[in-house]
Every structure is written in structure tokens, then in C-alpha cells.
Amino acid sequence: MCKVIRILIQAYRWIILLVCLIAVFAEFQVFTGQTPPHNTVIFVTDGLRPMTVNATDTPTLQSIQE
């Protein structure tokens, strides 16, 4: 009984390793041969006060606000 449990645990380890390797290869899109998309930076201006957004100091944010 103990030997069977050891074999099952080892089989589960191999299955987990296989799933992880497939996930890594899928992430890098090795199977499709495509390059991964570019990263995107998301900037959240949650801490800015409304009076600090003006055309002089932050023209881009001012244009977005309007």
C-alpha cells in the first residue's frame, strides 16, 4: 500500500511539472511562433488633487480632464 502511494505521489509531481512547462511554453507562445505583445504601463492618478491638474504643470492630464 505504501509503495502505491509513493508511485501516485511521484506521478502527480510529474503531472504538475508537465502542466507548469506547458504553461511556460504557452506564455512565450512557442507553439504558435508569435512574438509576445509589448508591455503596457497603466498610470493611475488617484492621489492627485483636482486643483493640481492644470494646463501649466500637467498639460496632458488637463487635456484628458477636459
Q: Can you offer a commentary on this structure?
A:
- The protein is an all-alpha fold.
- The chain has two helices and no strands.
- It has helices at 2-27, 59-65.
- It is elongated.
- The mean pLDDT is 76.
Give a quick precis of the structure.
By secondary structure, this protein is mostly helical.
Low-confidence parts:
none
**Helix share bin:** 40-55%
**Amino-to-carboxy terminus distance:** 72 Å
* Averaged pLDDT: 76
Compute the number of helices.
2
Cα-atom radius of gyration: 26 Å
Relative strand content: under 5%
Helix-strand sequence: HH
Total DSSP E strands: 0
Q: Which term fits the overall shape? A: elongated
Structural class: mainly alpha
Instruction: Describe the sheet with the most strands.
Output: none
Topology diagram in text:
Elements (H helix, E strand, L loop, with lengths): L1 H26 L31 H7 L1
List keywords for this structure.
50% helix; 2 helices
